[in-house]
Write a structure and sequence with these properties.
183 residues, mainly alpha, two-stranded antiparallel sheet, 2 domains
Amino acid sequence: MVREEAAGNRIVADRDPGFWRRLRTKRWWPWFSRGAALAFFALVATLLIVEARNVRWHEVIGAIQRMPWPTLTIAMGLVVASHFLYSCYDLVARLYTGHALPARTVLAVTFVSYAFNLNMGALVGGAAMRFRLYLQLGLGVDIVARILSLAMLSNWLGYMFCIRSRFRSAGISAASSTRSASC
């Protein structure tokens, strides 16, 4: 629906609020959304229990106990270091976007999101979790999208650098692989 404003002769379009906005105004919506969230978490808990029953825990504990402590300590240190390094992508994005969240908060958000990323996948776990946490902390959608874009770009550039370094150390160049592929 289009109408003309008398003051400035500016045309303004009255927008339809959309299906989801109308749905959220319904009296029963808060109860439904809480029920859906509880059902989702109950489903996740059920799936975790079903999968946990299939794990041979005595073998897992035995394997961990057989590992030398120095190896486990190094592995735990590398895990913490990789989480911290991944969290630094968002610190770079903080400088890029200029948002005012403290560095400590940014590190915490990214640290948690990276754990979800490793366990549930990049889109479902890491990106969705980071998006939700940043929105709850008051950042706008555009800022969060820029943070995620920069973090993903930095991450993939790092992967490409590692692959290039590995190929160079193995004596493989892009020119030699292109020639052999065209024959």
